[in-house]
Specification:
About 50% of the residues are buried. The protein has 2 domains: about 130 residues, ATPase, nucleotide binding domain (Nucleotidyltransferase, domain 5, 2-Layer Sandwich), CATH 3.30.420; about 170 residues, 2-Layer Sandwich (Nucleotidyltransferase, domain 5), CATH 3.30.420. The longest helix is centred in the last third of the chain and has 25 residues. A 5-stranded mixed beta sheet has the order 3-2-1-4-7, sandwiched between helices. A 5-stranded mixed beta sheet has the order 10-9-8-11-12, sandwiched between helices. By secondary structure, it is of the alpha/beta class. It contains 11 helices and 12 strands.
């Protein structure tokens, strides 16, 4: 049996899976993304997390046929290079990820955008099974997108599906990409944290940062946001409602354009917040949609935290079979 490693490289976490030929998950291991040291520190952490994954599964490195990595930001798929990942500390210049990780393990490494990998997994193994056309909107540190059209991942000229950087408010909030009014500036966890800090520093009471310290975190993680919402923290509820409205507006508008079979809402923040967030997204999409009945086709990711890494493993297997 040959095995594939899937890696979901995020701004705060490194999720890895060991995947068998039948696409079943053999083992899981999660690591933390370093916030200092730039690409070399992050890729060293990827190596360490994969090694721990193999130990957990009691498998030698020689059992791995290929590695797939889903990374945020702009990707040159053919070259295996992350061109820029603004939400990962220090990744503002091109990084040849496939070459570096390939040299570490001596196997082919396939690189993909993280949300594009996620929507591949949902299409084949998750909530998108049996559907030919899907749009993914994944809310984590940023907001990413992926698009399946006629059962194929649509790449366009390389940046298709980047719904996080579609403008939903003309001359709106500043986004990390340098533009104004992007969906990510309203629904990305990084932007939400920035807004929370600004309001807290201006005197707005909130338990968000107290919860962050209690949980031993340096950032407002999805768990912190969930706990604050469950405890009815006014600022947390307000900002999460803003995020849901923004995602719903974008989902509704994109559905009018593409008429997809379903819109998959995923990512760490949306997955953690669950059905309440989904219902708010649907409510915000309803008045935007030309056909209001399709709001029910906006659904939560079925694969949860496994989605990105599983999709990366699937992409890696596809590319290995095409060689």
């Amino acid at each position: 049996m040959s095995l594939r490693v899937g890696v979901d490289l995020g701004a705060t976490k490194i999720q890895t899976l060991l995947v068998a030929d039948d696409d079943s998950i053999v083992a899981r291991k999660r690591g933390t993304t370093p916030v200092t040291g730039g690409p070399s520190a992050v890729l060293a952490a990827v190596k360490e997390t994969i090694e721990h994954l193999l130990v957990r599964a009691d498998q030698p490195a020689s059992a791995v046929a290929t590695i797939g990595i889903g990374a945020p930001g702009q990707i040159d798929v053919a070259a295996g290079i992350v061109l820029q990942a603004v939400n990962v500390a220090g990744w503002d210049q091109p990084v040849p990820v496939s070459e570096i990780v390939g040299d570490m393990f001596g196997v082919p490494v396939a690189l993909a955008n993280d949300v594009q990998a996620s929507i591949v997994a949902e299409h084949r193994l998750g909530v998108g099974r049996g559907r030919a056309n899907l749009l993914g909107i994944f809310c984590g540190t940023g907001v990413g997108g992926g698009l399946i059209l006629n059962n194929d991942l649509w790449l366009g000229t390389g940046a298709a599906g980047e719904i996080g950087h579609t403008v939903i408010v003309q001359d709106g909030h500043r986004c990390g990409c340098g533009r104004n009014g992007c969906l990510e500036a309203y629904a990305g966890r990084g932007a939400l944290e920035q807004a929370a800090r600004q309001q807290h520093q201006a005197g707005r009471p909130t338990m968000l940062f107290e919860l962050m310290e209690q949980q031993g975190r340096s950032r407002l993680t999805s768990r912190v946001w969930l706990d604050a919402c469950l405890q009815r923290d006014e600022l947390a509820l307000e900002l999460i409602a803003q995020a849901a409205r923004a995602v719903g507006t974008a989902a509704g508008s994109a559905t009018n354009l593409l008429d997809v079979d379903c819109v998959v809402i995923g990512g760490g923040l949306a997955t953690r917040l669950g059905d309440r967030f989904l219902n708010d997204v649907r409510a915000a999409a309803q008045p935007v949609l030309l056909r209001s009945d399709v709001a029910s086709q906006i659904v939560l990711s079925e694969l949860g935290d496994d989605c990105g890494a599983l999709g990366a493993a699937l992409v890696a297997g596809d590319r290995l079979s095409q060689r």
